[in-house]
Recover the amino acids of this structure.
């Protein structure tokens, strides 16, 4: 279903223009008593050939996380500087150890195919390729939050190869000496540089740590399954931490209870488009935030006089709602806590969630730009109840629905925007039918142009398959320079022709997701992107 563009409604009166004040003291994501040892970073791009195969974006991923947090890192160890002794035993609490800082972030390869059910991040050195989860010590000293930006780092459900039931405590219980939360993946993941940056963006938009991690992963690749887990001494404490924690704390926990959430794509509600438009055109986008921050605030019943700016973001909030607007026009409206919505019970079908999402967009005049319903995803929580130890009772129970994510795509020149992290509008509906949040990366289209940005229009459009084939060839050549020849699998239903947002233009492009299986038995996925007219 596509909503047509329509004449805008009579706008609400906007107060006289006044400069938005700049905050010199941004809200920290750390509790006030955390005054140092904020963050430690590990990232591995280049591996010894005996250990693993190369990656491209891990250093930028870790550095982007640190930059977005606006806190100094005690260290950022890269490639050959990363040793297993920093993860195991007494070395975990050393100057460069995994347990040295309140937050630890590791970006690289990872796997959970060990017969004993141990997870290992792959390291650089021959003879020192692995750090094993059952030998790690995390939380005995300082670390309370550990981010694994790696494949298969937080698996749930039955392992297809071994038949073993995976859970976070079964993989990470031995390592947990007091950490509060852990983040990772049930599946393989994209090699991408914006996971950490996007996570911080969503937390600053009002989401809890667990929601922010799930959504940051979704906007990079909705075909992977992120997982966030929390630990505590009793069930209610653990559930509250899982769904509501928004500040990094240095307080240790007694990890007798575990709860976890996951975000998994459930269905696509439209067919992938494989044909270019009858007349190829370039979309020219408004470089300013449209609607303006003041107009957006009024739409959601917030006072524009309370807007303030820090860095690239403009924010306004009251006791119930928080609106955060990015410099590139993206915005997040946080309306309710997912934990509160889940606590009220209820059951919301996918059809009902779609109807509620459409109604919300119409009520707040958000359906003026053409939109198409794109995908449905489910946020689920493990099957344990609050009194259970999820390791013993919740592990074999099916996950319970927590919320439904309804995603729309912007339409340009009759085709959807297919950029993974742009041109989308996401509405999260709780099981009690509450609209929990809305996140938009739509851009206002000012006009369509027959003149490509890059130069004269081509005599004819490139064939999408051939263009994607050339992009795959370039990717494989980059690996060949490192002496690596991965096996390629096209992820089903990911090939599409549509519009790609590039700065202030929407250009005609083709996208495809490929999974690369490396000779060392590891996996990563990559988006292929080929511009057809732009």
């Amino acid at each position: 279903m596509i909503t047509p563009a329509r004449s805008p409604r009579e706008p609400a009166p906007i107060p006289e223009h006044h400069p938005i004040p700049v905050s010199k003291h941004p809200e920290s994501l750390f509790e006030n008593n955390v005054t140092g040892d904020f963050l430690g970073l590990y990232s591995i791009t280049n591996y010894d050939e005996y250990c693993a195969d190369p990656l491209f974006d891990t250093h930028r991923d870790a550095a982007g996380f640190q930059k977005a947090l606006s806190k100094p890192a005690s260290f950022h160890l890269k490639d050959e500087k990363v040793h297993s002794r920093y993860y195991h035993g007494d070395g975990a609490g050393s100057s460069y150890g995994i347990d040295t800082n309140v937050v630890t972030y590791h970006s690289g390869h990872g796997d959970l195919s060990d017969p004993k059910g141990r997870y290992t991040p792959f390291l650089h050195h021959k003879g020192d390729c692995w750090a094993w989860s059952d030998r790690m010590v995390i939380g005995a000293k300082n670390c309370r939050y550990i981010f694994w930006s790696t494949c298969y780092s937080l698996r749930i459900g039955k392992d297809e190869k071994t038949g073993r039931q995976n859970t976070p405590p079964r993989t990470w219980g031995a390592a947990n000496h007091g950490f509060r939360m852990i983040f990772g993946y049930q599946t393989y993941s994209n090699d991408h540089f914006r996971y950490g940056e996007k996570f911080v963006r969503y937390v600053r938009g009002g989401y809890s740590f667990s929601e922010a991690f799930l959504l940051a992963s979704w906007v990079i690749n909705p075909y992977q399954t992120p997982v966030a887990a929390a630990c505590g001494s009793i069930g209610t404490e653990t559930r509250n931490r899982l769904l509501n924690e928004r500040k990094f704390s240095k307080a240790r926990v007694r990890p007798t209870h575990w709860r976890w959430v996951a975000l998994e794509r459930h269905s696509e509600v439209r067919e992938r488009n494989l044909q270019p438009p009858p007349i190829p055109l370039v979309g020219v986008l408004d470089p300013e935030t449209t609607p303006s921050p003041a107009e957006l605030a009024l739409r959601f019943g917030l006072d524009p006089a309370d807007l303030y700016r820090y860095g690239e973001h403009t924010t306004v909030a009251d006791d119930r709602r928080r609106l955060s607007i990015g410099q590139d026009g993206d915005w997040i409206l946080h309306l309710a806590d997912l934990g509160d919505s889940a606590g009220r019970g209820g059951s919301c079908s996918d059809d009902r969630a779609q109807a509620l999402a459409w109604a919300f967009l119409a009520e707040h005049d958000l359906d003026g730009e053409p939109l198409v319903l794109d995908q449905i995803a489910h946020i689920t929580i493990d099957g344990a109840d609050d009194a259970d130890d999820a390791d013993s009772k919740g592990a074999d129970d099916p996950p319970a629905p927590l919320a439904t994510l309804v995603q729309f795509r912007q339409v340009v020149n009759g085709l959807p925007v297919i950029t993974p992290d742009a041109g989308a509008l996401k509405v999260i509906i709780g099981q009690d039918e509450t609209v929990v949040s809305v996140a938009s990366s739509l851009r206002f289209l000012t006009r369509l142009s027959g003149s490509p940005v890059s130069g004269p229009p081509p005599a004819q459009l490139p064939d999408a398959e051939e263009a994607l084939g050339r992009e795959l060839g370039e990717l494989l050549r980059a690996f060949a320079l490192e002496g690596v020849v991965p096996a390629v699998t096209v992820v089903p239903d990911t090939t599409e022709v549509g519009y790609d947002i590039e700065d202030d233009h929407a250009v005609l492009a083709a996208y495809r997701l490929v999974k690369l299986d490396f000779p060392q038995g590891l996996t990563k996925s990559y988006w292929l992107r080929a511009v057809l007219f732009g």
Observations:
- The chain has three domains: 39-262, 269-382+391-449, 464-533.
- The mean pLDDT is 91.
- The longest strand covers residues 400-412.
